[in-house]
Specification:
Helix content is 33%, strand content 18%. A hairpin with a 7-residue loop joins strand 1 and strand 2. The radius of gyration is 41 Å and the shape is globular. It starts with a strand and ends with a helix.
Length: 1855
């Protein structure tokens, strides 16, 4: 891997063309003042490129949802790694997301609970175990100890409704059961059953006398026949009967309750199986919050305490309340808080005697609650919904009490300790359905999963460290436990031990989110990844800072690269390298001032260096001491969360800093208690404050304002001037300018957000926003106003002040400092702008869009907004003493540099000077040191915190030895600031040992058929995974390696994106270490349908569509003139600009080019007051309307106005345009002298008036009804029977079938696939169809030489680079000859494979793992070498390559080989050998090694001679696709191979000419005319044709080998013939798992049930009812030869051969499956689980089994001959290992020896070497191919120098 990421010419935002490199495997810190360009370099350039390139490896569909980062403004970036951003933005806003789900601990807990937890009965609390005969016998022994009753062992049989009891009894007698037991009293269960139940006696005995073997046998049999249930009736001496029920499952015998076995999903609230059904796993439900209904408890009912009833529409309810309250003696005049609980309940819940019904509402008090219930029934009305939303809030779910899970999940407990050993003080959570006492609960061993969720993480960690289990844990469980301990350890390490796992992630602070993301990064164990961190120190107390440093160093030591944006000196000194960016913010930044070590920065002459060295300090200007007389706000008895009944005094009109270690209770105190308590005091709606006793002193403040870390509005229209309110004053000044008064301009005219003054083209934004669907959006300077936002007339207004003047756009371009100078003396403007300068934002321009501000700038802008508001209150200048506001700040230094903090402190002092009070939650030591008063909470976090450690001045804090904050402050001043320092905060840097982590480790993989294997795959090398087909290679490579690498990367993306991309679930594997992000290049045997082309497959067409939408000129398909839409504002602006001071005539077109008299139209115009209409250019009177020529086309317009165009008459011009558009149906005609100008607000043709919809990329799509040609539906050809519902991928439309014989170009679009509207678009005089018709080489040339305007260059920058890159990759893999519109079905297999490769090789990443699935499929040995070179180039770039492959050349090229085997299916899944080529060849167990060492010797049998007299088919002058009149011979009764390089015409010749023609000719010998060739001689010798192609077999779980090959019908018939089936009247359809009554109703015969998961991958689990056997119980009772139909489905082919030996119809296909090496498959294996090679061979068997060699003999008299079959096989070796190829060769030889003709299209040299006859096509692919290079035997081909096949064959046979 390259040791550097190199960036050249970075110009993103304010970066000044930087060239910079980042060392991989190092920590680099970027620092500098806010707004200097740190985030532009780290996030917008470095992260954006790494994330974008990796995301590009996903499908185009997935990319739409993946928030792909914009392409940065940079010349180039080399050696980029896949990047993950760890920032403070919490991507998940879903209430289901908690700390547990974010950290994936919930996933591990549910697995652990499913494996190791123990169940307690909900009723008696006793442990419940799964029963078996042994356990039942022990239980009976205990119960029969005192007395020995007579036991009757029975099992129950329910009588079906369609049978009588007698019939069932007869049936039981036939089975040998003659005795039934009559229970003395039917149980309630029995009574409820609709069907009758019989208790069949298995045995009767007294336990003391019965042999143990007899007891066990009776219990076993009863359990078996009772489907896991049995009843024991105990009869005592008095014949009294007791029934004891047992079940094989989980059953509490004491309470007779059955429980189901736990699945992992039982413990997941994200799964429908586990989530509480009421709240759907959210833990809370939406309800009415009476705190919002009665916000001010000091009001009485008469004063309007009930807020919603104070409106006019609801006043009637207030009157009802007053009326009924008097009757019930409720005190109306007393404040709500003083009413008794009974009085409050009466008001809220209504009269206790309320009867309900319409009458009761009129006669009794219904209550507030019923009022809201009634409103809920009217919630379909918008205003009611709005009203309800004001009073709703979340309340705990009543069903699960907040546990989120179904009740039974909490009955499972983990661990053995009782409540005495629980972390104190913790009260155990009582499961909802449990009937236990608190004492019982406390004595129970262990905790349930919700207990773990509620405990602090620190306590959960302790619980797992102390957890002990009986017996040995298996490796998987041990690993689960280790993983849990590791993650809990990480969370405690980053200082989050105080959080609980059920804390909702949306309530976390930015710093907490970032630290959780950091632990996720550690937990994902990704390597070779670039982590970009955004101020990880935020929200972390200096005492805990070393935790972050250690984690960053650990990530680095694992082999990752870290780039950190940071201001904290403790993190800075831990970096390997620091870049200081500056020198100033905004335009003054963007340069690298310093690049070196942290120590060297102290001596550098930069702003950061000055602060670190102590030359500059952050001081408190004018500190104000706190005296005894200082007013205070006091909170007493605060007990919320972890606060321990504390009392806190907050001095007012001072800067008070609340600090303490993370989790000590700061946010709880201020945000959860003080802020809501103050809001409640002021009577404002709020959620209930946390527990406290009382609040004193609130009357001394006017109001409370919370300034938290939430982001400010991010619309581009918002700017600093408008945010602080200064722009309103500026607009008023402009409206008072003399010219503005003359033109009647109001302040609104000077607004760019609304009004008539803004530029109509850009809507006042100053730029044109061009949306680019799947590319970065483009923002261009508006062409009409040149970015000035206003119309030219508005810019003529100039504001004069103190001898200077400026227009509104010039003011917006001024910096804050310049504007303060310009507006000197203007108090209103100064008051708004001064706060911006105070917080250090004087360098910003007034009009700078807010989204372009950095995080630190946005935080300070927010503060400036509050400062401006405070200044407006004029408090500081008031003569009467007024109350000030209390400002609460939550970490205001977030994102601020030392210098910015110094400015912030000055701004704080201004607020204090104005009489306000400040309380700041802060960890920044400079702020703490500069405060007037410090409240330090602690001493530690979580349960160890919540106390006031220190309270006083910063100096007092320094002297307090118990205060961790004081200690940190001392350390900071002594050790961190200054030129000579000792660092204690960093851990010693571990040397990064690349070799220690140089492999991907997979431990205990059990996915599919893998047998707990352990694999090590070296990184940055070329590894091949090989083995027999179906051995588990693809499972290892794709289902484990690729899925996990991609899933771990996707974890860093948002949940919505993940729900769309559906990352695979976690594979069944214990652990995977050292895995980099992965990219898959999968094998797709389908080449795509008719709507798919080279351009769509490579995505070039997507970009062409975008190009034409954004830059194409829409032409009218009929008139061929441009179509132009405009808004009324644009038309006004255009007329003001083009006809200034000229008179124009405005008309509304009524009739355009239509014939008729139009007398009625004239009458209408006359009645509307119009005296004339303009007809064909002449004005005619409406009251004396002449008779028009009926047969001539007329244009008739309505005259609207004659206007002199001037700025002062703008209003009348607007009105005229409005009227004209109204009557002209969005069209308008302007006549000036002799010229006419037609304008339209619709997309309409100015000539014919035809309107068009707004263009969108679908207009150019072959797959969309918006774009396709209406005749051919986007295929470009006429296909009979094809319609809009087809995709073109269905097999019947593929070109080898009958339908396409009539194929010809679509007459409507002439093969161009699109409708006339799309085809009419032009770009550089080319339609999209013209560009699509170019070859790749020609298209590359076109795009290189096309000349673009400046605007086009800016818009098409990304589009053209994407197109050119893709064209270049296609050229690189040798496909330059293909045309972009070439239909996918006409591509050869090799061409299709290389197109897919080209798409992926372009991502140009380093450090990723590419997983390829048999990339050599469809490639000739010559092309294979080109591919191997491309792969080696990827390897040289520093990537890991893992290739699943059977190809010998590829295996020999690999550095590392893993051989999976020894067999296939369940006989495989083990690592037979791994190592170098030599290691594999020397390993005696490796089949692959054996074949590599001793390849198949050729020929396996003597070649069958082919002479001139050998009967043969002769194809004359084949000319389909690229075939150039090929004439070739196919000898009969021989094995013929058609070969040649990819794209040379093999498949065209063998399938589309030979096979297609023979099929048709044999069907219609007389009528059929040869197609694509002159003729085929001697075709009469062939009787039938069979084909095996590469199209995939059915991929639904219902398709399986038995159904696909076709012998399942015969098996069903066998079962239908059994006595049991006949007895029940069942036929063969009963035994179908696809339809009918026989299949399991739960899973519909699939054997699996799929659960759709909202934010997680769908899960499939075995059906609980049929246990995967697909049929219902009744059907499974029918047996044939001892097995039921479900067992037959689960039989292997080898076993089935013996089982069906007496049934030849079933036996023959089974033997064929054995012959091709598929003996290990089960008959019912679902098709989706078959490997590519298995599917290919099943297809071969299904064709071979259609023909019995002795069937259909042609008899003539006594003589007879077998029918002659021609087999055409398309690359049958695809997916086959060498051993399987040998089996295939034997099958082909057997066919040929039996007198059949076999034609194989093939590249495999083993198969070519066995051929009797070889047809070699070439010499190259595409237009350079299509010729016959040589035909003959193997020797002839070898001796032909021009044959690529001959050269490869010679080398192969010699080796």
């Amino acid at each position: 891997m390259s040791s550097q990421i190199r960036i050249f010419g970075a110009r993103q935002n304010n970066l000044k063309n930087l060239n910079v490199h980042f060392d991989t495997g190092k920590i680099t810190v970027l620092t500098g003042v806010s707004g200097s360009g740190k985030s532009s370099l780290a996030f917008d350039t470095l992260y954006a490129e790494g994330q974008r390139r990796y995301v590009e490896t996903f499908s185009p569909y997935a990319r739409q949802f993946l928030d792909r980062m914009d392409k940065p403004q940079v010349d180039r970036i080399e050696g980029i790694l896949p990047a993950i951003a760890i920032d403070q933005v919490n991507p998940v806003r879903n209430s289901r997301s908690s700390v547990g789900t974010m950290t994936e601990l919930n996933d591990y807990f549910k697995l652990l609970y499913a494996r190791l937890s123990h169940l307690h009965c909900r009723q008696c609390g006793q442990p419940v175990h799964a029963e078996d005969a042994q356990r039942i016998a022990q239980t009976l022994k205990k119960r029969c100890l005192t007395q020995d009753p007579r036991l009757v062992i029975t099992f129950a049989v329910d009588v079906p409704s369609n049978f009588s009891e007698e019939e069932i009894k007869q049936f039981l007698e036939q089975q040998g059961y003659t005795r039934l037991h009559e229970p003395q009293h039917s149980s309630s269960k029995q009574a409820k059953l609709a069907t009758q139940r019989l208790y069949v006696i298995q045995d009767r005995f007294r336990l003391s006398r019965a042999e143990p073997s007899r007891v066990m046998e009776a219990l076993d049999a009863a359990l078996h026949y009772g489907n896991g249930h049995l009843s024991v009736f105990a009869l005592d001496e008095e014949k009294k009967e007791q029934e004891w029920s047992f079940s094989a499952g989980l059953h509490c015998a004491t309470c007779d309750i059955d429980y189901s076995a736990p699945q992992p999903s039982t413990f997941s609230f994200n799964s429908p199986l586990g989530a509480c059904e009421t709240c759907k796993g959210f833990g809370r439900v939406m309800g009415i919050d009476y705190g919002l209904v009665i916000p001010d408890e000091s009001k009485s009912l008469l004063e309007g305490a009930i807020k919603p009833w104070q409106t006019d529409s609801n006043r009637v309810h207030q009157k009802d309340l007053e009326r009924y309250a008097k009757q019930a003696a409720i005190r109306l005049a007393v404040p709500w808080q003083q009413l008794s609980q009974a009085e409050k309940d009466w008001v809220i819940y209504g009269d206790p005697e309320f009867k309900g019904g319409a009458r009761a509402w009129k006669q009794q008090w219904y209550g507030v609650a019923r009022y809201f219930d009634w409103q809920e029934t009217r919630a379909y009305k918008m205003h009611v919904r709005v009203m309800l939303s004001k009073y709703r809030s979340y309340t705990t779910c009543p069903s699960c009490r907040g546990s989120r899970l179904k009740a039974d999940a909490l009955l499972w407990r983990l661990g053995q300790h009782t409540h005495a050993h629980d972390p104190q003080p913790y009260t155990r959570f009582m499961p909802v359905t449990a009937e236990w006492s608190q004492e019982q609960l406390n004595q129970m061993p262990g905790l349930h999963i919700h207990d773990l969720m509620r405990l602090p993480i620190e306590a959960v960690r302790t619980f797992f460290q102390q957890l002990r289990f009986d017996g040995e844990l298996n490796a998987a469980t041990q690993l689960l436990r280790e993983e849990i301990n590791t993650r809990l350890g990480f969370l405690c390490e980053v200082g989050l031990g105080y959080l609980s796992l059920d804390r909702q992630s949306r309530t976390l602070s930015g710093g907490e989110v970032q630290r959780i993301n950091l632990t996720t990064a550690l937990g994902t164990s990704l390597v070779n990844t670039l982590f970009v961190l955004d101020e990880p120190s935020i929200g972390l107390h200096p005492h805990d800072m070393h935790r972050i440093v250690q984690i960053m160093q650990r990530l680095r030591n694992n082999g990752n690269t870290l780039v950190v944006v940071e201001h904290d000196p403790q993190v800075m000194v831990a970096a390997d390298r620091i870049l200081d960016i500056g020198p100033g913010p905004g335009k003054a930044g963007g340069h690298i001032l310093f690049d070196g070590s942290p120590a060297a920065l102290r001596h550098a002459s930069t702003l950061t260096g000055d602060y670190l060295s102590g030359k500059k300090k952050i001081t408190a200007p004018h500190p104000q001491p706190v005296k005894t007389t200082t007013p205070r706000l006091t909170l007493t008895g605060v007990r919320a969360h972890n606060l321990k009944n504390i009392t806190v005094d907050f001095p007012l009109e001072r800067l008070v800093c609340v600090t303490g270690v993370s989790g000590s209770g700061k946010s709880t105190l201020i945000q959860d208690v003080l802020y809501p308590a103050l809001l409640k005091h002021f009577g404002e709606a709020t959620e209930a404050p946390g527990d406290f006793d009382c609040l004193v002193g609130a009357d001394q403040i006017a109001e409370v304002v919370m300034v938290d870390q939430s982001p400010i509005g991010r619309t581009a229209r918002s700017n600093p001037a408008s945010y602080v309110g200064a722009f309103d004053a500026i607009r008023k000044l402009f409206a008072r300018a003399p010219l503005a008064i003359e033109r009647d301009y109001k302040p609104g005219t000077f607004s760019f957000n609304s009004g008539a003054g803004r530029c109509p083209t850009c809507g006042g934004t100053g730029f044109e926003h061009i949306e680019m669907q799947f590319l970065s959006d483009v923002y261009l300077r508006c062409p009409d106003c040149d970015g000035k936002r206003f119309r030219p007339e508005i810019l003529e207004i100039r504001l004069e002040h103190l001898g200077r003047n400026a227009s509104i756009d010039e003011v917006l371009d001024m910096t804050v400092d310049e504007a303060i100078d310009f507006f000197a003396g203007l108090q209103d403007v100064q008051r708004g702008l001064a706060p911006l300068a105070d917080v250090g934002l004087g360098y910003l321009t007034l009009g700078q869009p807010v989204p372009t501000l950095s995080g630190g700038e946005a935080q300070r802008l927010k503060l400036a907004g509050y400062l401006a508001e405070a200044a407006k209150s004029r408090l500081s200048r008031a003569k009467v003493v007024k109350k000030g506001k209390l400002f609460l700040f939550d970490e205001p230094t977030t994102g601020l540099h030392f210098d910015d903090i110094a400015k912030l402190m000055q701004a704080f002092r201004k607020l204090l000077a104005a009489g306000h009070s400040l309380i700041v939650i802060e960890h920044n030591l400079d702020v703490i040191h500069a405060a007037d008063w410090v409240i330090d909470l602690g001493p530690y976090g979580g349960t160890a915190g919540g106390e006031v450690v220190a309270c006083g001045t910063p100096q007092a804090l320094l002297e307090n030895t118990h205060s961790l904050t004081g200690n940190a402050l001392n350390t900071y001043q002594q050790q961190l600031i200054g030129t000579t320092i000792e660092t204690e905060v960093t851990e010693p840097a571990l040397p990064y040992n690349a070799n220690a982590h140089s492999a991907i480790q997979i431990l205990n993989a059990r996915e599919h058929n893998l047998k707990n294997i352990q694999v090590s795959i070296p990184r940055d090398t070329f590894t091949v995974i090989t083995g027999v087909s179906g051995s588990g290679k693809s499972t290892l490579a794709f289902d484990i390696l690729f899925n996990e690498g991609q899933r771990r990367y996707l974890e860093s993306l948002n949940a919505y994106a993940r729900s769309i991309v559906q990352p695979a679930g976690q594979p069944d594997v214990d652990a995977i270490y050292g895995i980099p992000p992965t990219v898959a290049i999968e094998q797709r045997t389908s080449r795509g349908g008719y709507k798919s082309t080279v351009a769509t497959t490579t995505e070039i067409h997507h970009f062409l569509r975008l190009l034409y939408v954004k830059l194409g000129t829409q032409m009218c398909p009929a008139c061929h003139v441009p179509v132009q839409p405009q808004s009324p504002e644009q038309i006004t602006a255009q007329l003001l600009r083009d006809y200034k001071n000229q008179t124009i005539h405005i008309y509304a077109p009524l009739i355009v080019a239509r014939k008729g008299y139009y007398t009625d139209l004239a009458k209408w115009a006359h009645t509307k007051g119009y005296t004339h209409l303009r007809v064909d250019g002449e004005l005619l009177p409406t009251d004396a309307w002449p008779r028009l020529d009926r047969y001539q086309e007329h244009n008739i317009e309505l005259p609207i106005a004659d206007i002199l165009v001037r700025a002062k008459d703008e209003q009348s011009l607007r009105q005229a345009i409005h009227d004209a558009l109204l009557h002209g149906q969005q069209n308008i005609l302007i006549v000036h002298q002799d010229t006419e100008l037609r304008l339209s607000t619709a997309r309409a043709c100015p000539n014919c008036g035809c309107s068009f919809p707004e263009p969108d990329p679908r207009l150019f799509s072959y797959n969309s009804k918006h774009g396709w040609c209406q005749s051919c539906f986007g295929t470009g050809v006429s296909l009979s029977g094809f319609d809009a519902e087809q995709s073109g991928e269905e097999s019947k439309w593929l070109p080898d079938e009958d339908e396409t014989s009539t194929e010809n170009k679509c007459p409507s679009c002439h093969g161009q696939r699109l409708n006339p509207v799309a085809l009419a678009f032009r770009w550089h005089d080319q339609g999209i169809a013209n560009l699509s018709a170019l070859s790749i080489d020609d298209a590359k040339h076109f795009f290189q030489q096309v000349q673009l305007s400046q605007r086009e260059q800016e818009i098409a920058r990304d589009i053209l680079s994407e197109i050119q890159n893709r064209l270049a990759f296609l050229q690189e893999v040798g496909l330059g000859y293909l045309h972009l519109d070439r239909a996918a079905p006409t591509l050869s297999g090799g061409e299709a494979q290389r197109i897919r490769l080209a798409a992926q090789l372009g991502s140009n990443l380093q450090g990723v793992c590419y997983v390829l699935d048999e990339p050599t499929i469809g490639l000739h040995p010559r092309d294979n070498r080109i591919l191997l070179q491309a792969l080696q180039r990827l390897e040289r770039n520093g990537n890991t390559l893992v290739v699943v492959e059977h190809d010998e050349d590829t295996i020999r090229q690999a550095s590392h080989i893993i051989d999976i085997g020894p067999g296939a299916g369940i006989r495989g899944g083990q690592v037979v050998a791994q190592g170098t080529l030599e290691d594999i060849m020397q390993n005696p167990d490796s089949l692959t090694g054996r074949y590599l060492k001793h390849p198949i010797s050729h020929p396996m049998q003597d070649y069958r001679p082919v002479t001139d007299s050998t009967p043969a088919l002769l194809v004359e002058n084949a000319h389909r696709h690229n075939l150039q009149n090929v004439t070739a011979r196919i000898p009969l009764e021989r094995l013929t191979v058609v070969t040649g390089v990819s794209g040379s015409g093999k498949s065209t010749f063998a399938r589309e000419v030979l096979l297609h023609n023979l099929k048709q000719k044999l069907a219609q010998p007389e009528q059929y005319i040869w197609q694509y060739c002159e003729r085929i001689l001697d075709w009469e010798q062939v009787d039938r044709v069979l084909e095996v192609d590469q199209t995939p077999i059915g991929k639904t779980p219902r398709s399986c080998p038995a159904t696909y090959v076709g012998f399942w019908d015969d098996i069903r018939k066998l079962f239908a013939q059994t006595r049991d089936a006949k007895l029940r009247g069942w036929n063969a359809s009963r035994f179908s798992f696809n339809t009918g009554d026989g299949r399991c109703a739960e899973c519909n015969g699939q054997g699996l049930v799929t659960f759709e998961m909202s934010f997680l991958p769908d899960i499939k689990i075995p059906c609980e009812r049929c246990h995967g056997q697909r049929f219902n119980d009744d059907t499974l009772h029918v047996k044939w030869q001892g097995k039921h139909i479900g067992e037959v489905l689960q039989m292997e082919v080898d076993e089935a051969v013996e089982y069906f030996t007496s049934h030849p119809r079933i036996l023959r296909p089974l033997q064929l499956l054995q012959d091709v090496g598929l003996g290990y498959l089960t008959l019912g294996q679902p098709s989706p689980t078959l490997s590519g090679g298995e599917a290919q061979r099943i297809k071969l068997v299904s064709e071979l089994s259609k023909v019995r060699l002795d069937e259909g003999l042609h008899k003539t008299g006594r003589a007879s001959r077998q029918p002659h079959t021609l087999y055409v096989l398309d690359e049958p070796t695809v997916g086959l290992a060498m051993a399987d190829v040998e089996k295939l060769l034997r099958v082909l030889h057997r066919l040929t020896d039996a007198g059949q003709t076999v034609v194989v299209i093939e590249h495999n040299l083993d198969l070519i070497a066995e051929a009797d006859w070889v047809i070699d096509m070439g010499p190259e692919g595409g237009i350079h191919g299509g010729q016959l290079v040589v035909e003959g035997n193997v020797q002839t081909v070898q001796n032909t120098p021009s044959s690529h096949t001959g050269q490869a064959l010679t080398a192969f046979l010699q080796s």
